[in-house]
Amino acid sequence: MRFTPAAAATLLALAPEYTLAETSASSSADQCCAALSSSAIGDKVIYPGDAAYHTSVTSYWAVNVQLEPNCIVQPHSADDVSAAVQTLTTAGGENPCKFAVRSGGHMTWAGANNIETGVTIDLSLMNSTIYDKEAKVVSMLPGSRWEAVYKTLEEYDVVVPGGRTGPVGVGGFLLGGGNSFHAARVGLACDNIVNYEVVLASGRIVNANNATNVELFKALKGGSNNFGIVTKYDLKAIDNAHLWGGINVFDNSTTTQQIDALVNFIDNIENDPYASWIGLWQYNSTTGKTLISSPWDYTKPVAHPAAFDEFAEIPRISTTNRFATLYNLTSELQQAAGYRDVFLTSTYLNSALVLHKTIEILNQKISAAIPLARGKDWSIMVIIQPWPKIYWQRNQNNGVGNVLGLDRFDENMLQVLYDYSWDNAADDALFQRLCEEAMAELDAYAQSIGKYNEYIYLNYADVTQNPLRGYGDENVEFIRQVAARYDPEAVFQRQVPGGFKVSEA
After folding, report:
1. CATH number of 5-125
2. CA distances (Å), 206 to each of 45, 229, 396, 486, in order?
3. 325 neighbors 154 (Cβ within 8 angstroms)
4. pLDDT in tens, 266-295
5. Complete DSSP assignment for 386-438
């Protein structure tokens, strides 16, 4: 049962001895919502039946994560976030309020950034981007989407290393490390952050940088939502918003040529760090075909750079290569919303054998799904990306480092993401099972030939995975110590169930 705002507020006022321990989980959450409605940010709390509530819930990218919290609070500022956190950490009594934190809502597992029985703090209205020309620093609020960030920065002819598809949210992307078109030049996105503004569990608002709260500064570079809620990110700007690139489409029969070219590309990317390549092998049930789509992106305006020569020799079905802004290129890479979805990812040493096995397993799962899927519109895809050592070696001069643990490795690697999407809820178990099987089979194969790496990119990880563990024991312990220092009551371990918790690593 969910109370209306008025009824919940009345219950709270008239029954002060009515403890949350005596209620159902939903009634407990209603009490927490009532407390928010009675607080200084009461006008920013929305409920089922409100148009804004429906808009928030349905704006999550994957349909299967569109949970329905008892209420949603939409702060406009860090002070609002602080007020929400203070209310939620004090209103629950013996049954603490459970809450979720949402930036862009692009994770694909239910509960990562939303909650069914509890409160969601939806940061989407905190979405401005400001450029400081003198400092050459871009300040972004956590609810910003990368497409809006890039569009704002076009006026100044600068960019930041960020998401490669426009609708992805700033907050989650940066807390998970952040791979970008610029990674070979400037390192991962988190290594370009010069300051975080953070609301701690106490409600205190602090800054973390290389001079203040230095341990927190480092821990946030990959440590996800274990410490507080980041309400502003300051990143170093990169000159020149103009690039060359586009999407190149190939027949599936070119797989061997693609793999050979990719292995060479990964091992030579440090010779031309302006080049970025992604490969998507996608089967679509509506066409019954598998095609290869490959975004090529060169982060300065040079046409047909030599870095892509080996790929360019492969016959193409089509190409959109052109001079364009980062905003334009990332808008082109948007995946359709409105589907149910699952991601699973792993990392491997650069190996043609691993790549061939990746595609072999993809084809096996397509064959398995065809006679079993009940929906009419579904897709099985694998996304392959370079993960060369230059990505993390770039951060070694920033004086702080990060907690990703990649500096333990001195070999070029590649990243595999199995991405299955479908339209019918009746197929949830089928596609989850097939995707988990694919990842497990590829991991086992890579281990058998000595090509497996324990690192898991958090932003692509499924709830069945444990990316923090892949950071290594030393970094996990560091994250645990920082979390204990800045959140001594373990609010973000116990009251915020979503995300990847260091207490479970």
Report:
1. 3.30.43.10
2. 25, 11, 25, 10
3. yes
4. 999 999 999 999 999 999 999 999 999 999
5. EE-THHHHGGGGSSS--SS-GGG--S-EEEEEEEEEES-GGGHHHHHHHHHHH
Q: What CATH class does 243-467 carry?
A: alpha beta
CB 303 within 8 A of CB 395: no
User: Which is nearest to 2 in space by CA: 79, 116, 104, 88?
Assistant: 116
Q: CB 236: neighbour CB atoms within 10 A?
A: 17
pLDDT digits (tens, 9 = 90+) for 181-213: 999 999 999 999 999 999 999 999 999 999 999
Using left for φ > 0, alpha for ψ between -120 and 50, and beta otherwise, residue 358 falls in: alpha
- C-alpha of 392 from chain center: 18
* 129-239+470-488 CATH pick, 3.30.2130.10, 3.30.465.10, 3.30.70.2740, 3.40.50.1000: 3.30.465.10
Q: What's the CA gap between 394 and 389, in Å, rounded?
A: 9
Tokens of 250: 């190939």
Helix axes 25-37, 5-14, angle to 10 degrees: 90
**Which pLDDT tens digit goes with each residue over 91-123?**
977 889 999 999 999 999 999 999 999 999 999
Q: For residue 342, report the phi and psi dihedrals to the nearest 5 degrees.
A: -140, 135
pTM over 0.90: yes
Q: Is 298 left (phi over 0), alpha (psi -120 to 50) or beta?
A: beta
